[in-house]
Design a protein that fits this description.
- The chain has 81 residues and is mainly α.
- The chain is built from 3 helices and no strands.
């Protein structure tokens, strides 16, 4: 779900398939949690908006970079066919 939200936030058309966007979103959640822990935002008893913000920012970056890499490698091959 996080990958799809990140895909909607990024302007322009994203070319990576849904399954890859989902994996990028999962990676964004993992990286966002690691950054939040490093920044001192550990688990709390309530909903932790700052940790979710870290996850979302990480997912946006990973989806953007991952889509650019996908276009540079596999995406060009698909366009030729």
């Amino acid at each position: 779900m996080l990958g799809l939200i990140a895909k909607v936030i990024i302007p322009g058309k994203r070319h990576s398939p849904l399954w890859l966007t989902t994996i990028f979103g999962m990676l964004g959640a993992i990286v966002g949690n690691a950054i939040a822990r490093w920044a001192g935002v550990d688990s709390t008893s309530r909903l932790d908006w700052s940790r979710h913000a870290f996850q979302l920012v990480a997912a946006v970056v990973i989806v953007l970079v991952g889509d650019l890499l996908y276009q540079a490698t596999l995406g060009k091959r698909k366009q030729r066919t």
